[in-house]
Write a structure and sequence with these properties.
Jelly Rolls; 2 domains; Cupin_8; alpha+beta; 10 helices; five-stranded mixed beta sheet; JmjC_dom; 373 residues; globular; seven-stranded mixed beta sheet
Length: 373
């Protein structure tokens, strides 16, 4: 399923922009027949700007550049070079990436285009293949219940991880305990901490984000676009100021990549995280409200229509919350394992498990940590 690795170095900026256009084209998929246009402007080299037209394939056009387009993206040449240097690990939620780009117009087209220019590493591909073989051998697609462990030892956790089987841990006593947290307390304690960066011009502190959440709860809306228009931090980096209260509860801090914050208010019929899988084992601590996780074993890959362009995590085209069996007919045979996570509980999701997450209660907060190994 891998697509060719892109080049990492170019003779000059003009070659890098051309390579960027080709990167988008080779990573583009459009199974749902989306139609639209995106103007991509490189401010240092405006003559190299182009329009990406969505068709069955992605068409790159450089004529009539003054015409109206659905979406406009301004991306510095330095960020384009960085995309090539970091395609295996590039995270669009990184303030140093998303904070350099300007978006206007229909943001769903920008989101679609962003997916097309990242690539999985050979290591990630091998992890997913290994998980698929193990899950098939152990018959995990037929699991009907998830295992619970009360206050386990670290050795018990390691043994469970080696089996690649999901696990919920209960009896945790973080300090302060999860029951003591609220939106007001978060705003009071971390008001100046930056919790979300969505573009070169939009950064939000905790205090500002909490105010947005309260406004959303007073006047909710359904038009949500991942990464852009959603009252949810979607795995933004946990601010350093919050580590002391929400750092990992097991092992050492160095055993995990930097934790992520999942804070917001999302209606139950819209997933907080759409169906995807991760190449690293994830630890998800539930802090405020409850979440429901729907899990699918790695050996069901052919039923879930995963995207070919991805790196840190692999999204799926199939959407369980709005199933379209005409476009994705194999998905009707997929088997799901569901679990509800309560405040103070932690779920371990071994690498390769597909999962989709819903907020049963709003507001909702979780913190995730990915095991490095």
């Amino acid at each position: 399923m891998n697509i060719a690795y892109p080049a990492s170095e170019f003779e000059n900026d003009v070659a890098a922009v051309e390579g960027f256009a080709q990167l988008l084209q080779t990573g583009f998929e459009n199974p749902e027949g989306i139609r639209g246009t995106v103007r991509v402007t490189i401010p240092e080299h405006p003559e190299q700007s182009f329009i990406a037209r969505y068709s069955d394939t992605l068409l790159i056009e450089r004529h009539d550049m003054d015409r109206d387009t659905d979406t406009q993206v301004i991306i510095p040449i330095a960020t384009i070079h960085r995309i090539f240097n970091e395609f295996e690990s590039l995270d669009w939620r990184d303030p140093d990436i998303i904070g350099t780009i300007t978006f206007t117009g229909d943001l769903s087209f920008a989101n679609h285009l962003a997916r097309s220019c990242i690539r999985p590493s050979n290591w990630t591909l091998a992890r997913f293949r290994s998980a698929g073989r193990l899950h098939a051998a152990r018959g995990y697609r037929d699991l009907t219940q998830i295992e619970y462990l009360h206050q386990p030892t670290q050795r018990q956790i390691l043994e469970a991880m080696a089996k690649s089987r999901p696990l919920v841990i209960t009896g945790l006593e973080p300090s302060p305990p999860c029951r003591d947290w609220s939106l007001d307390k978060l705003a009071e304690r971390y008001g100046d901490a930056v919790v979300r960066v969505r573009s070169a011009t939009l950064r939000q502190t905790m205090a500002e984000f909490v105010a947005e959440l309260k406004a959303f709860e007073a006047n909710p809306y359904d038009n949500m676009i991942e990464g852009f228009v959603k009252p949810y931090t979607e795995g933004a980096a946990l601010p350093e100021q919050m580590w002391a209260d929400f750092g990992p509860l097991f092992f050492e801090r160095e055993d995990f990549i930097p934790p992520q914050l999942w804070l917001g208010s999302v209606p139950m019929h819209i997933p907080t995280s759409s169906l995807h899988r991760d190449p690293l084992t994830g630890f998800l601590l539930q802090v405020i409200g409850r979440k429901r996780l729907d899990l699918y074993s790695a050996d069901q890959e052919d039923l879930l229509y995963p995207m070919k362009s991805y790196n840190n995590y692999q999204p799926c085209w199939f959407k369980p919350e709005a199933p379209c069996t005409d476009l994705y007919p194999k998905a009707k045979d997929a088997k799901c394992l569901s679990v509800t996570l309560n405040p103070g509980e932690l779920i371990i999701q071994p690498a390769g498990w597909f999962h989709q997450v819903y907020a049963i209660d709003s507001p909702n907060m979780s913190v995730s940590y990915f095991w490095r190994y």
